[in-house]
Design brief:
This protein is an alpha+beta fold and 279 residues long. Among the domains are: 123 residues; 35 residues.
Length: 279
């Protein structure tokens, strides 16, 4: 009895493992208003924006989240959910067998794959536009077109050599004949600095000379003023005293001593004389 139960459990486990590994994308359906439908497996999510991780993500959970935001398109990649107003570009549509990642909340549904996304119609609107071609597909297409154009428009070897020679000869040789702009600029700067220094030196020399002349003139004026105020005699070296008092002049004293006036008398005061009047 226990052996039978073990066998049944093994069969169920194998069936669940095989069903998980055989998870495939549901075929695309026509949009139905009010309900979510699978639109296809894409290698990009176009202009949709990420809504973060959705625990136990399923087709129903992702589309319900986007329907609540009034978005017409949704995309899943394992736990990640994206919402938008348009499908990805039709150029990014890939085979359904590239969307084999089981949804975390319901493993019989596919939620994208390796760099692929399961895209849904949320049922908000059945008529939905597509985004522009993604950069990856456009770059691959442009590179293919460039390769085709270059292979078709190949010219003979001698023609291309001639074009390259003409192009090379038309370019100026800056190393041989071109003016040295940096040297010219440096020379101009040095010349301006030298001229400014010379002008500044002349200015300060003239200013110093002028100050010296003013000081000399002031000194001469002071000497003249001292000479005039000192009775025609230059100021003494002791302090500039003017000997205007004749008593302090030894020459005048000798002249005054030559007469009958006594030297020991003070003639600076007036002498009051009394004369007897005749009665």
């Amino acid at each position: 009895m226990s052996l039978r139960r073990f066998a049944v459990a093994a069969v169920l486990a194998f069936a669940s493992i095989s069903s998980a590994t055989d998870t495939k994308e549901k075929p695309a359906e026509d949009p139905i208003s009010g309900t979510d439908t699978v639109h296809g497996c894409y290698k990009s999510f176009g202009t949709m924006t990420s809504q973060g991780e959705v625990p136990f993500n399923t087709q129903g959970k992702c589309t319900e989240l986007c329907r609540g935001k009034n978005k017409v398109a949704a995309a899943s990649n394992s736990h990640d959910c994206y919402c938008g107003d348009e499908y990805p570009s039709k150029a990014d549509l890939v085979d359904d067998d590239q969307c084999t990642e089981p949804c975390p909340g319901f493993d019989s549904e596919a939620c994208g794959g390796l760099d692929t996304y399961t895209v849904y119609n949320t049922g908000v609107r059945v008529t939905v536009g597509e985004s522009a071609e993604s950069s990856s597909s456009s770059s691959s297409t442009s590179s293919a077109e460039a390769t085709k154009t270059s292979s078709v428009s190949e010219a003979p070897a001698n023609t291309s050599d001639t074009i390259e020679t003409i192009t090379a000869s038309s370019e100026p040789d800056s190393s041989s004949g071109g003016p040295n702009v940096a040297g010219i600029a440096a020379g101009v700067v040095v010349g301006v600095v030298c001229v400014s220094g010379i002008i500044g030196g002349i200015f300060f020399w003239l200013r110093r000379k002028r100050n010296a002349e003013i000081e000399e003139e002031h000194r001469r004026n002071a000497a003249v003023n001292a000479f005039i105020s000192g009775g025609g005699k230059p100021p003494s070296s002791s302090g500039g005293l003017s000997m205007s008092d004749s008593r302090l002049d030894p020459v005048m004293n000798r002249r005054m001593s030559d007469g009958s006036i006594a030297d020991n008398q003070d003639y600076s005061r007036r002498i009051l004389r009394v004369r007897n009047a005749d009665i």
